[in-house]
Recover the amino acids of this structure.
């Protein structure tokens, strides 16, 4: 390296710093901050909405996507990530934003169906031939069965699974909290790996060949089966499970600043259009709109679904009882 | 040891400028941001702080993080010394390649390393499948964490010990041999004492690096509380619950530990330099 | 890395060793070589091979398609931009810091070196977190930044800052021991002969340290391009905008596009290999230059 090239380096620094100047902001760019496993769905939905919006208003709208765990994403928005809309997989994450006044307080009234255009539930994926004979939640707690579940502390996926198992145990034992606690404990004794995210758990089950069953979202289960082939894994529906709504909301802070409220609102509203609902159904999200749900009824096995509100009295209570530090989940691992 | 005269009457210019800039930049990039963590934590009372950083689960994670880091650094100290010795003293085919590869963990992104190691050491991986028949599980156990930490710490020991072995005085070894010492005695009594400070420095550097490691470990660890959950993961877990203060409290503990470790490293180096200076 | 002991070379050249009183029994020698090779293969070479194996598993077409994809290209561009800023900035700092530390004596030097080393052992997660605490919407400067529409976190500046933080010590760490062993005589001589301070630096110091400097830059660059943890915290994960290469690897991996994930990862691994190649070249070049110098030059390592 000569002196000259070192000087060039310095010059390059100056240049690249200049390049840092605030970038141009196209007026009709929306940022949809979403959770991990919704990428494929929104990848298909975005061009459909863009076409619809172009036809309706003549305006070209570009949608950027950001995906990661639902909670880290909500946190990023709270910390300043300029999302026009959030599309999450649990109400807590939207509620947190509402608590910080980034989303209107009555966000769940702003759109139909509690602002959830689709929902899913927790079901099982087992190895071909179901060698351990796993049929329902109580088969997962048997000794010698290994279950892959992501960490309820870091993944919404894991949280739903935990609550689903808890709700099942309550139903089986006439609402006995003590029995439910024992059940959850037995279940997590059978978990060999607590991945930090839903996709990590899938990789552990599918690529690393660990565990007899994977518990995850219905839509995810079908996607995995498609990826891996039906000759490797089988889908099992438990007798009951939890309803996992995927709530959406407009982020006030951003749309005020960017003047993008109209587009953001339309983007979310259009999620209830038959077209969008069908895309959702094709990705194995259960559509909230009854007519589309009827059309795809054969695809979704009926499961006895309970909600977080019904069994746990809402997310806030569920979090306090189970997932805060020292909650029922932590107690499982205390010696 | 340095041949230059004492620096007391320094005629070189630019001390004020260079030191001033160094301090300014250090404050801007490192100290002010780090102080944010301390100030955030200051909103806690001492009891609250202690309560957060001393729960059984957190303590278990310290034990794991430090235990696995110590073992990884220990493995590196032993094998790194052998590798350094082999690279300096022997010539054999492929030596240059081996020498170049030592720095790989510096250059390979940790997440890539984590994914690759997990793939290899999982029960159906290339190496994991060989170990599985003997009932040895690596990926998703504490062993896996040690493997990842050994990987990232490897260059430190080799690269700190290598120059010292190159500078070893052969005469001493020859003298020891002519006095009837066996090769092993020579190594233990003549060579090792000279290498030891550098070896300790390398060990401590590898240890310091391992304690903070996240990217490669999180893939290969099972993340089971009390068993395979490292402290950086607990920080993430706290953030997931919007518990910023709790997360920063743990971060502060890790920061203080890092700082102390590095201070020890620099003291070791100072000690090594002084020893070397006394001898010459 | 620390070339502190600089006595004249021992009479017996380190190369061309025969079995002397100071050599080991051939059996032990080959045992040690064997142990080293097995250890290195197990821990370093197989993981590297695995990356390329996975990347090319589905064929060369898939490999190049993965790299030519717009999001991948955007990630590559962003990574280059970030490294292009972080590395020169740390280069300037490294030179200034090592000038102050190696050429002068002052109180608190050990503390200063320790503080410079600090980012090196700070967990990347903590590194990202502190910038969120500073520049996040709920952080110290957050409200001001928002009021003035300056984006730091979840935009390129935040990624650059986090990268500068984690690569902070690399250049300085490389230069300090080098400049310490070189001493001050040459600079002092230049000053006596009437050169200005800057002239002395450009014409005397810089040529002496250029290889060490380049080595520091290369390591710094490798780390800057490969950083995952800290960048992940401040990135915002916006596809095609704030995803660096390591983050893009994670995304592809999470999308079950394993071959594509490893393809991008292999680019980073390739970068590692180029780094190692360059480094070997520098070492060879340094040795070569010192061999040419007839002076009783201190042996560089």
């Amino acid at each position: 390296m000569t002196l000259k090239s070192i000087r060039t380096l310095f010059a390059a620094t100056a240049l690249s710093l200049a390049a840092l100047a605030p970038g141009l902001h196209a007026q009709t760019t929306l940022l949809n901050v979403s959770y991990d496993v919704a990428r494929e769905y929104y990848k298909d939905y975005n061009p459909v909405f863009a076409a619809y919006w172009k036809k309706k208003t003549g305006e070209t709208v570009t949608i950027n996507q950001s995906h990661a765990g639902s909670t880290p994403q909500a946190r990023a928005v709270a910390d300043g990530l300029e999302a026009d809309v959030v599309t999450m997989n649990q109400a807590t994450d939207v509620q947190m934003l509402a608590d910080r006044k980034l989303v209107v307080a009555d966000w769940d009234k702003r759109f139909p169906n509690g602002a959830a255009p689709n929902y899913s539930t927790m079901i099982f994926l087992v190895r071909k031939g179901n060698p351990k004979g796993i049929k329902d939640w109580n088969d997962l707690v048997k000794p010698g069965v290994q279950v892959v579940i992501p960490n309820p502390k870091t993944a919404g996926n894991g949280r739903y699974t935990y609550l689903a198992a808890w709700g099942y145990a309550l139903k089986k034992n006439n609402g006995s909290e003590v029995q439910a606690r024992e059940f959850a404990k037995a279940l997590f004794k059978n978990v060999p790996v607590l991945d930090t995210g839903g996709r990590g758990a899938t990789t552990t089950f599918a690529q690393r060949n660990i565990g007899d069953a994977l518990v995850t979202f219905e839509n995810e289960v079908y996607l995995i089966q498609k990826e891996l082939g039906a000759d490797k894994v089988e889908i099992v529906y438990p007798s009951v499970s939890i309803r996992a709504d995927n709530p959406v909301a407009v982020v006030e802070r951003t749309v005020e600043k960017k003047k993008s409220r109209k587009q953001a609102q339309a983007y979310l509203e259009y999620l209830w259009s038959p077209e969008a609902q069908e895309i959702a159904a094709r990705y194995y999200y259960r559509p909230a709109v009854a007519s589309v749900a009827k059309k795809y009824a054969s695809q979704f096995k009926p499961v006895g679904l309970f909600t977080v509100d019904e069994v746990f009295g809402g997310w806030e209570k569920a979090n306090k009882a189970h997932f805060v530090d020292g909650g029922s989940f932590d107690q499982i691992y205390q010696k | 040891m340095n041949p230059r005269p004492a620096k007391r009457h320094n005629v070189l210019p630019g001390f004020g400028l260079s030191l001033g800039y160094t301090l300014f930049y250090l404050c801007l990039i490192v100290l002010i941001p780090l102080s944010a963590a301390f100030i955030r934590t200051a909103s806690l009372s001492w009891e609250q702080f202690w309560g957060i950083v001393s729960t059984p689960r957190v303590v278990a994670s310290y034990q794991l993080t430090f235990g696995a880091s110590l073992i990884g650094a220990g493995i590196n100290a032993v094998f790194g010394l052998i590798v350094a010795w082999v690279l300096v003293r022997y010539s054999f085919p492929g030596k240059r390649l081996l020498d170049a590869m030592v720095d790989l963990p510096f250059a390979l992104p940790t997440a890539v390393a984590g994914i690759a190691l997990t793939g290899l050491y999982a029960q159906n991986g290339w190496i994991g499948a060989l170990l599985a028949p003997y009932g040895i599980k690596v990926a998703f156990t504490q062993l896996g964490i040690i493997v990842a930490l050994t990987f990232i710490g490897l260059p430190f020991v080799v690269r700190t010990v290598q120059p010292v072995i190159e500078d070893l005085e052969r005469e001493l070894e020859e003298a020891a041999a002519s006095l009837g010492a066996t090769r092993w005695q020579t190594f233990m009594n003549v060579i090792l004492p000279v290498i030891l400070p550098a070896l300790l420095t390398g060990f401590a550097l590898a240890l310091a690096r391992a304690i903070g490691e996240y990217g490669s470990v999180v893939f290969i660890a099972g993340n089971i509380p009390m068993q395979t959950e490292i402290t950086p993961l607990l920080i993430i877990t706290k953030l997931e619950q919007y518990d910023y203060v709790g997360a920063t409290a743990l971060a502060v503990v890790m920061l203080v530990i890092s700082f102390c470790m590095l201070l020890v490293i620099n003291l070791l180096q100072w000690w090594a330099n002084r020893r070397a200076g006394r001898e010459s | 890395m620390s070339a502190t002991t600089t006595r004249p070379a021992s009479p017996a050249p380190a190369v061309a060793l025969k079995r002397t009183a100071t050599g080991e029994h051939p059996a032990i020698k080959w045992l040690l070589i064997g142990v080293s090779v097995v250890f290195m293969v197990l821990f370093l070479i197989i993981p590297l091979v695995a990356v390329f194996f996975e990347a090319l598993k589905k064929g060369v077409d898939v490999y190049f398609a993965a790299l030519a994809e717009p999001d991948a290209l955007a990630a590559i561009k962003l990574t280059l931009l970030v490294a292009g800023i972080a590395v020169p900035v740390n280069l300037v700092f490294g030179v200034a810091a090592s000038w102050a530390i190696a050429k002068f004596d002052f109180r608190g030097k050990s503390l200063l070196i320790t503080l410079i080393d600090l980012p090196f052992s700070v967990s990347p997660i903590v590194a990202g977190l502190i910038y969120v605490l500073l520049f996040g919407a709920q952080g110290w400067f957050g409200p001001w930044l928002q009021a003035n529409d300056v984006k730091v976190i979840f935009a390129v500046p935040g990624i650059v800052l986090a990268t500068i933080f984690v690569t902070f010590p690399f250049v300085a760490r490389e230069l300090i021991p080098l400049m310490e062993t070189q001493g001050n005589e040459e600079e002092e001589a230049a000053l006596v002969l009437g050169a200005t301070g800057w002239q002395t630096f450009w014409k005397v110091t810089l040529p002496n340290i250029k290889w060490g400097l380049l080595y520091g830059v290369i390591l710094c660059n490798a780390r800057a391009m490969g950083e995952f943890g800290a960048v992940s915290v401040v990135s915002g994960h916006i596809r095609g905008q704030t995803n660096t290469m390591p983050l893009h690897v994670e995304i592809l991996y999470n999308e079950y596009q394993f071959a594509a994930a490893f393809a991008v990862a292999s680019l980073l691994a390739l970068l590692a290999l180029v780094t190692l190649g360059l480094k070997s070249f520098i070492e060879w070049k340094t040795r070569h230059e010192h061999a040419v110098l007839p002076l009783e030059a201190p042996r560089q390592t």
Observations:
- Residues 46-279 of chain B form a domain with the MetI-like fold fold (CATH 1.10.3720.10).
